[in-house]
Specification:
globular, binds adenosine-5'-triphosphate, 34% helix, 6-stranded mixed β-sheet, 226 residues, 7 helices, alpha/beta, Rossmann fold
Length: 226
């Protein structure tokens, strides 16, 4: 299986004046096409920091992050942004949808950043994916008019609309009750499997983690046996 993402010897140190904190230490990780990986670990173990680095939203203090054979940390912000838009989808615990835009407009947004995609095409693709997450009756609703589970479905649709090869998800069901979390995760799994998208998910929920192909435990910034 080919590697979509490869991180080697990742170290992250936050420097705040006199105090410096090493958050990640010598981490390696390879994600191959279509696989589902769950990262678990106690609060403060570095899970979100790692996801940020892997998604090119921040740079490691040392080490390398390769996405589709290209070294992210040698790129400038514009180049990293283009790589994110082309290859990655992001889902967060709190949906990060834009309050003043409808479901369709929120989902179409990543496509509208691509000059080759017309507004009409972006809108149609947004409608198609919103249909596949069961929100055909909520297309013109704004986030404030949707339930928590529905908002998370919109966020999933937005992450998948560009057909990314990898979804980075930080507690994607963390603010939902048990039933909603199961249903939203079920939907996410079904779509990523149909679309052959890999999934790297941070979760506190070991039951959810058990559904992934591979589980990784982060403790104090390094891997431990799960
Ligand atoms: N920008 C920053 N500047 C300084 N320290 C930071 C910064 N971001 C995170 N940290 C510190 O890095 C450590 C790891 O944080 P991180 O958010 O990655 O943990 P986490 O495992 O995702 O925790 P949680 O499960 O609570 O979300 C924490 O001690 C945090 O205070």
């Amino acid at each position: 299986m080919s590697a979509i993402l490869k991180a080697t010897n990742i170290n992250k140190i936050y420097d705040e004046g006199a105090v410096s904190t090493q958050v990640l230490t010598g981490l390696d990780l390879t994600v191959t096409a279509g696989e589902r990986i769950a990262i678990v670990g106690t609060s403060g173990s570095g899970k979100s920091t790692l996801l940020h680095l892997l998604g090119g939203l921040d740079t490691p203090t040392s080490g390398e992050v390769w996405l589709h054979g290209q070294l992210l940390n040698s790129m400038n912000e514009t180049e990293r942004g283009a790589m994110r838009n082309k290859h990655l989808g992001f889902i967060y615990q709190f949906h990060h949808l834009l309050a003043e835009f409808t479901a369709i407009e929120n989902v179409a947004m990543p496509l509208l950043m691509r000059p080759e995609v017309s507004t009409a095409e972006a809108r149609q693709q947004a409608i198609d994916i919103l249909n596949s997450v069961g929100l055909e009756h909520r297309l013109a609703h704004r986030p404030g008019e949707l339930s928590g589970g529905e908002r998370q479905r919109v966020a999933i649709a937005r992450a998948l609309v560009t057909k990314p090869s990898l979804i980075l998800a930080d507690e994607p069901t963390g603010n939902l009750d048990y039933d909603n979390a199961q249903s939203v995760f079920g939907l996410l799994s079904e779509l990523q499997s149909t679309m052959q998208t890999a999934l790297l998910m941070v979760t506190h929920d070991r039951n959810l983690a058990a559904l992934a192909d591979r589980q990784l435990l982060l403790r104090n910034g390094h891997w431990e046996n799960y």
